[in-house]
Specification:
Elements: E1 2-8, E2 13-19, E3 25-29, H1 36-48, E4 52-57, H2 63-66, H3 69-76, E5 80-82, H4 87-91, H5 93-99, E6 113-114, E7 120-123, E8 126-132, E9 141-145, E10 150-154, E11 157-158, E12 161-162, H6 172-183, E13 191-194, E14 200-201, H7 202-208
Parallel strand pairs: 3-4, 4-5, 5-6, 10-13
Antiparallel strand pairs: 1-2, 2-3, 7-8, 8-9, 9-10, 11-12, 13-14
């Protein structure tokens, strides 16, 4: 699987376009673009590379990760896939914008394809395993691609840090348990692709993350 990162919006959120090289089937993970020029950069990349979009995948439904989810879904005629446990956040996107004083207009986001722990998503010749990762939000998800030894981890874990738990749905003990039982148990060479900041590996976080 090939992955390209776009860092967008005032929160420095990582939006990812990932695709299967043989079929050109692609997905976008956490489209957090808040400005037209950010959307244009991402869609130009998709169109120039003739990618065949299949899914909008959301690791969780905080506003910095989903601002362009419906816009991308409508543009390419694809479903928004996320955990129904985060529907409360999806219905509160306008309030999230007000809370962070963002000058953007967002409607309530509808989840087209509910995802649950142990679900499998096909993308070309690869399979993505859905791993529930509560703690940052109740409906947090990780998308693990075993054949490519990578995992999209959202805001569950970062290089040398972990997700914040002071927002609605967050719980510190739950998050640490999630990381220990659902992230650090992946193969040590697995590349962790987070919602903010640089990539890291399971081995690196197991050995050096001060929160763990």
């Amino acid at each position: 699987m090939k992955v390209t990162k776009f860092t967008v919006n005032p929160f420095g959120e990582n939006t990812y376009v990932a695709w299967d090289e043989d079929t050109r089937q692609a997905m976008i993970v956490d489209p957090g673009m808040m400005q037209e020029h950010e959307r244009n950069v991402v869609t130009r990349f998709i169109d120039d590379n003739q990618l065949v979009m299949q899914y909008v995948l959301l690791t969780h439904l905080h506003i910095d990760h989903v601002s362009s989810a419906r816009w991308i879904a409508d543009r390419y005629g694809i479903p928004v896939a996320a955990s129904p446990l985060d529907e409360m956040l999806a219905s509160a996107l306008p309030q999230q914008a007000q809370h962070f004083r963002l000058r953007i207009d967002l409607d309530v986001l509808t989840i087209d394809r509910p995802l649950h722990d142990s679900d499998v998503i096909k993308l070309g010749g690869e399979s993505l395993q859905v791993i529930a990762s509560p703690g940052h939000t109740q409906g947090g998800l990780i998308f693990y691609v075993p054949d490519s030894a990578l995992a999209f981890t959202g805001d569950t874990i970062f290089e040398g840090s972990i997700g914040r738990t002071d927002l609605p749905g967050g719980d510190y003990e739950t998050l640490v348990t999630t990381i220990r039982e659902r992230v650090l148990t992946l193969p040590p060479e697995t590349l962790l692709i987070p919602g903010h900041g640089p990539t890291t590996t399971v081995a690196n976080e197991r050995d050096y993350n001060p929160y763990l």
